[in-house]
Design goal:
Layout lengths: L23 H25 L4 H37 L1 H15 L1
Length: 106
């Protein structure tokens, strides 16, 4: 069985576009983060321009959805690599970490 990559390292399923050492999940997360960043910039400009509140709220909801998707991608990657490996070496630490992540999510 192949060893799992360290947390934050490129997994065998990653691709190298332009030399990027990021895993597929981190590449997706980066894309989502950049989309959220762009939309948030739009929200700031909409507020400065005193635009109609429901339109601003719709864009804020879009940012929140993008960030939630980014969080889900990061968690999936973490579970697939770091936690899977850690469960074999230090189950208590892995469980404690998962509980910490879960409590932060609630």
């Amino acid at each position: 069985m192949k060893p799992l990559p360290q947390c934050g390292q490129r997994s065998p399923r990653s691709i190298r576009r332009g030399g990027s050492p990021l895993s597929l999940q981190k590449q997706k997360t980066l894309k989502l983060g950049k989309q959220a960043q762009g939309t948030l910039s739009k929200v700031v400009e909409m507020i400065k321009a005193d635009q109609y509140c429901p339109e601003i709220i719709q864009q804020v909801d879009s940012v929140l959805g993008l960030l939630k998707s980014a969080k889900r991608e990061l968690l999936a990657g973490h579970l697939d690599t770091c936690v899977a490996r850690q469960m074999k070496s230090n189950k208590k630490k892995a469980v404690d970490e998962l509980l910490k992540i879960y409590n932060l999510s609630c």
